[in-house]
Structure formats: C-alpha cells, structure tokens
Amino acid sequence: MKATCWMGLRDVQVRNVPDPKILNSRDAIVKITSTAICGSDLHLYNGFIPSMRKGDVVGHEFMGEVVELGRDVHNLEIGDRVVVPFPIACGRCEQCSREMYSLCENSNPNAWMAEKMWGYSPCGVFGYSHLLGGYAGGQSEYARVPFADVGPIKVPEELEDDQVLFLSDILPTGYMAAEMCGIEPGDVVAVWGCGPVGQFAIKSAYLLGAERVIAIDRFDYRLEVARRGGGAETLNYEETNIPEALEEMTGGRGPDHCIDAVGMEGHAPGVAFAYDKLKTNLFMETDRPVALRQAILACRSGGTVSVAGVYGGFIDKFPMGAIVNRSLTIRSGQCHVQRYMRPLLEHIRAGDLDPSYIISHHLKLSEAADGYDMFFKKQDACLKVVLHP
Ligand code: NAD
Ligand code: ZN
Ligand code: ZN
Predict the structure, then answer these.
(1) Which residues line ligand 1 (CB under 6 A)?
(2) What is the pLDDT of residue 282?
(3) Can you tell me the distance from the alpha carbon of 146 to that of 90, in angstroms, rounded to the nearest whole number?
(4) Residue 154 pLDDT greater than 90, yes or no
C-alpha cells in the first residue's frame, strides 16, 4: 500500500510499504477515506520528537471503512464507517477505567523509553515515534487499529467525512482544553494560537459558557477564521503588545483562563524568541515555550492556564513564582479522545457544531509532501490539510 513515511528532517515521502495485518484478536484493519495533517505532525517534521526512524509511517487523524476484524472485536462489522481516536487505549486498565485514555498502561510496548524521559509512560499513539509505541500511522491507504473494540466509533452515513474526521483528535483536544479551564458564566478566555486546535478551543469555550474569547496569533487569515468561524475577538501579536492589550480588555485583571494552543515550537518577536531558538539549537532546551510563559503571566490571579499545545521535555525561564504567588492552576494532557467522541458527535448531529469550517485544503495522499510543506510554511492560507488515499 501507499503510506506517508518520515524520511528525516522536513522530508516526508509517499512510498510503498507492506499492507498492515491483523496481529491481535482485538485489531481491525481500516481502509482510509480521509486523513489529516496535525500540528503535532509538524513537531515530527521539524525534528522535535526523538526516536523517529527513517521510513516510519506517520499520521494519527484518520477515518475509513472496516475491512478486516480480529475475532474478539464484536461491536464492529466489516463495512462499518468509523473514526479512529489518536490515543491507543485498551479500555481495561486502571487509567482507562478512569477515562484517562491517553494514559493507557497497556498500549506502549516501548514504555521504558518514555519512562526515562517522563517518569512514567503515556499511551501509544499512531504514527508518533518509537517513544510512543512505534505504531504505523494513518496517512496511508490502510491502518491496523489495535483495541478496535474500544477506540473507533461508527459514524452515521448522513454526515460527511469532513464533518466527523476531526473527532479523531483536534476537536476533542480543543474541547478538553476549554473544559480544563472550568469556565463559569461571564468568564473571559484567551487562546494563544489559531491553528486547528486553537480554533476548536475557541468554539468550545463558547459552548461551555464563556462570555468573551480573545484569540492570539500572527497570521491574519487564521485570526479571520477565529473571528468569523469562532466568534472570537482577535489580537495579532506582531502588531499589538499582548500583555498590555489583555490587561486593558479585562479591566486590569487579566483573562480568567488562558489556553496555550501553540506548544513547543512557539514563535515570538524579539529577544525572548532569540533566547529559546539559540538554546534549542544548542540542545540546552528542548522546547520554545514563548506562548506558555506569556499565558501564565497574563492570566488573572486565581485563574487557570490550560495547556493543549504539546511540550516534549525541559524548558527555561518557567515563571513558577507567578503560579505560586498568584494561585494559578495549570492543567494539561494529551487529549483523552475516547471520552469526548460520542458527546461531540451528538453536537455535530444536532447541527450546533460543524467542524469542517477549518479545512483549507483537500489533497490526494500522493501530495502529502506538498501538504506538509504548505502547512509548515503557512502558505496559501493553509489551516488544515485533509488527504484522500
Ligand atoms: P498549528 O501549528 O497549525 O498552530 C499553531 C499556531 O500557533 C500557529 O498558527 C502559530 O502562528 C501560532 N503561534 C506560534 N507562536 C505563537 C505565540 N507566541 N502566540 C500566539 N500564537 C502563536 O498547530 P495545531 O494543529 O493547531 O496544534 C497546536 C498545538 O497543539 C501543537 O503543539 C500540537 O502538537 C498540539 N496538539 C495537542 C494535542 C493534545 O492532545 N494535547 C492534540 C493535537 C495537537
Ligand atoms: Zn494530532
Ligand atoms: Zn488501558
């Protein structure tokens, strides 16, 4: 089959690889109809995630048709149309029983690698390095889906792929980011980053009762989607002093909650950025937490900073003093997607949410390399690329 393979720094290629096979009785094989490129894939593309090997099949946002089933999968049938969540989770361990699916204790065969970096291991993830299991991803024609009796959900025929594909990752991720804020009526929420995750965090913050959402980025086309599609007020950080503007917009107190939807490859004008860029280039720091620092310092005393952006390792100049002295709450996590798929599918069915508004490009799977390049360089108003095998 054809699959998108990571070949090295900023090099992905669609190549022929062996077809996936059923390996365990709870596996399914899915024939992929739509699959998307995620901001997290850019961290692989840009070499920020260790333990990638040349030829690894990438992609963790995908959906399609069930074409083969292991003997212990009883809730699906051949021909079912399903969306697959990115965290691979057994559904039976201690963490899964708490619905903390991205912490599944049974799905990362390389847990020992993750334990060295993080103390304990999170779950395995499709197409996301050997550190997270070494599973083949879904930017391909077919994928093997482990624990298929737990993860994939069937989607109704009347909904298009474009409407349900993002249940696999970024819609639940944006929702969980807003949910972690504990929004109360009247609250103001600020969102750093207007990529796909930021867009759905904005949408979800309103769904959960925020009065105002203020969105921050530097790309005007992304800020426009935040305004038109999400109803946010927007700030361009290349034109506006963000801390000052937020203070002014919130009566001198700061936003009640701040969401970091930027992650480890943050960008900023000025000296702060040069500092992180230099330190990461010298391997003295693993991430560039420019948005996270700003979110912490801007947040109202007693507020919540919700971190959906992915960080990998160790960061400098972390404003711990602000967190302690101003009673801030920090919440984070890889999304527990399985927990949110069904309720969010209901929102889509009811017509109060149509996530397809963020799609900027439909490409053929064979054009995956162009998709990565465009999404990375933010060219051609690229916001979300969907690939079709
Ligand atoms: P993206 O790259 O399209 O979006 C990131 C946006 O942040 C860009 O528009 C960029 O211009 C903006 N940005 C950069 N520096 C900024 C700053 N200082 N202030 C404000 N905005 C800034 O990516 P995405 O798909 O939206 O993903 C965003 C993050 O979420 C990534 O780190 C990704 O890995 C992560 N993610 C996490 C989960 C999870 O489960 N926690 C799931 C999916 C994605
Ligand atoms: Zn993703
Ligand atoms: Zn589990």
Answers:
(1) 38-40, 42-43, 169-170, 173, 192-198, 216-219, 222, 237, 261-263, 266-268, 290-291, 308-310, 334-335
(2) 82
(3) 8
(4) yes
